[in-house]
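sry for the spam today, last one i promise. struct tokens for design, 339 residues
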């Protein structure tokens, strides 16, 4: 099997590439990544010299390049993870999210259709469903009600992918996951951001009242689910992937402070962001019953392991936060505290 992983140098993508190399050592994994600020080739340094992992730097929206890669490496299946993925950044600049997530996905689908790809796995997010009340869960039949430019771009790309199945007969499977956490996550997301701030003894900015709820999923469990969906999922179907670990944001922040030995006086409540969904919760019954997937990590142990990794790998996140991103990070951090 020759598989193309797009966005394979990002957080979930790099973990997925490593997972595939461990679980399917006879597969050839071609990794297409543009290496924007959140893509880090150093994350895959342990695969250097691995003839079954091929890195190609490029944009999924570059039709000519994608067609060449699919043909050159005789790709059988595509696992599409490449995306702009941060809600705050989508509020500041929506255009690149539409360009990459919607138009880029369409170009990749068109190239895959022309190449006769056997399966196209579209990796998406529970944010396409919008916000839940205090009870209930998102299922695969829940209405699509995105709240941000990011989530609307992902909802659009999901629907385009499913349209290629219904219109052109492509073998497409869509997965929608809850909030991922784990090693190598870029420090703009909640858990690494709060961990890095705590290690620097800087204020930890918490949006609104901190009571927003997310369902947390360890990235290794997500990778296992993606492989199952690729190999066993039914064409034209959507599978929700949730960790069954609902937590309020303030609980996460307090847990990180406890694990890093820092005081809760570092917590600073700041103005809520526009369109901030109150609660997400995933019902993973379909993928559990059809494909036999269940998460292996408890949230408490997963959070402890993740925080410890950031403590022990300071040089990694210091490097990825250098340069242009550091200026962006500092600007947004100060703006959030001042709000």
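last one done:
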């Amino acid at each position: 099997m020759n598989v193309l992983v797009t966005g394979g140098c990002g957080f979930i993508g790099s973990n997925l590439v490593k997972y595939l190399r461990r679980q399917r050592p006879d597969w050839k994994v071609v990794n297409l990544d543009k290496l924007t600020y959140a893509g880090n080739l150093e994350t895959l340094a342990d695969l250097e010299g691995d003839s079954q992992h091929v890195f190609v730097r490029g944009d999924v929206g570059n039709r000519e390049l994608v067609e060449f890669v699919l043909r050159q490496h005789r790709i059988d299946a595509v696992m599409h993870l490449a995306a702009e993925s941060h809600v705050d950044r989508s509020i500041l600049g929506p255009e690149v999210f539409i360009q990459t997530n919607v138009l880029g996905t369409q170009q990749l689908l068109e190239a895959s259709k022309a190449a006769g790809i056997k399966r196209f796995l579209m990796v998406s997010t529970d944010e396409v469903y919008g916000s839940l009340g205090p009870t209930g869960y998102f299922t695969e039949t829940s209405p699509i009600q995105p709240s941000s430019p990011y989530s609307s771009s992902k909802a659009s790309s999901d629907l385009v992918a499913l349209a290629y199945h219904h219109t052109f007969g492509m073998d497409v499977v869509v997965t929608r996951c809850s909030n991922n956490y784990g090693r190598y996550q870029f420090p703009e997301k909640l858990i690494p951001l709060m961990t890095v701030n705590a290690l620097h003894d800087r204020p930890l900015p918490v949006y609104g009242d901190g009571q927003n709820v997310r369902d947390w999923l360890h990235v290794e469990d997500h990778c296992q689910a993606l492989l199952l969906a690729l190999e066993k999922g039914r064409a034209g179907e959507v599978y929700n992937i949730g960790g069954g670990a609902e937590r309020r944001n303030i609980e996460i922040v307090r847990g990180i402070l406890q694990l890093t030995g820092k005081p809760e006086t570092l917590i600073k409540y700041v103005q809520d962001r526009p369109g901030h969904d109150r609660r997400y919760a995933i019902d993973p019954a379909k993928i559990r019953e059809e494909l036999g997937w269940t998460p292996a990590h408890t949230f408490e142990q997963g959070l402890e392991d993740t925080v410890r990794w950031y403590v022990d790998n300071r040089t990694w996140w210091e490097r990825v936060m250098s340069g242009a991103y550091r200026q962006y990070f500092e600007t947004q951090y100060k703006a959030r505290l001042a709000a």
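The domain at 2-179+218-241 is CATH 3.40.50.720 (Rossmann fold). ok im logging off now
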